[in-house]
Amino acid sequence: MLVSAAALTLALIGAPDPVSASVADHVSDSGLIERSKGPAGVVVHATAAGGWVWPVAGSRNVVRGFEAPASRYSAGHRGIDIAANTGADVVSPTAGTVHFAGVVVDRSTVTVATPDGVLISMEPVTSELVVGASVAKGAKLGVVSTGGHCANGCLHLGVRVEGQYVSPLRYFGGVPRAVLLPMR
């Protein structure tokens, strides 16, 4: 397999790779991501190394992956969409503090700030938590509500590091490690 310098650069800086942007990602309860179609039909398996827990119970079906925008104001998909039923409990992927809880445009949103400054936003989530509330890893934040951009219901989860959106799968162990291959 030949990897271009541009593809390697994009993979290292967090741009969408063909694997994490797959529409058929399924994650088991153990955190193992199984994809039936990776790049060029390759089956990819990655174990959860990030230590975060999934925000909704169930099969962890990622219905839409992360797609990094070309610039801060360009189109993209700044998170992942996880299949979830309306009314399903939403838990905090890791410990932190409620940074925001309210409505953004027409979607109820909860954002958790981790101690190291990572912001985790989830929507649509109805929550009774208030800004400043401490949350433990796995603590209930609220429930999946209506709205959002998935036709059949989902939870959108976005992650920002120093103001830049990154693939949330990094924290769930779902982005394969970059490997340098010799040029032929």
Briefly, what CATH class? Mainly Beta
Average pLDDT value? 75
The number of E-state strands comes to 14
What is the CATH topology descriptor? Glucose Permease (Domain IIA)
CATH architecture label: Distorted Sandwich
Structural class: mainly beta
Helix content: under 10%
Low-confidence sequence ranges: 1-49
Query: How many discrete domains?
Result: 1
- Biggest sheet character: 11 strands, antiparallel
Task: Tell me about this structure.
The chain has helices at residues 5-13, 169-172, and strands spanning 25-27, 33-35, 44-46, 61-64, 80-83, 89-91, 96-104, 107-113, 119-123, 125-126, 134-135, 140-144, 154-161, 164-166. It contains two helices and 14 strands; from the N terminus they run αββββββββββββββα. The protein is globular and about 55 Å long. It is mainly beta and 184 residues long. The protein has one domain (5-172): Glucose Permease (Domain IIA), CATH 2.70.70. Strands 1, 2, 3, 4, 5, 7, 8, 9, 11, 13 and 14 form an eleven-stranded antiparallel sheet that branches. A three-stranded antiparallel sheet has the order 6-12-10, with no helix packed on it.
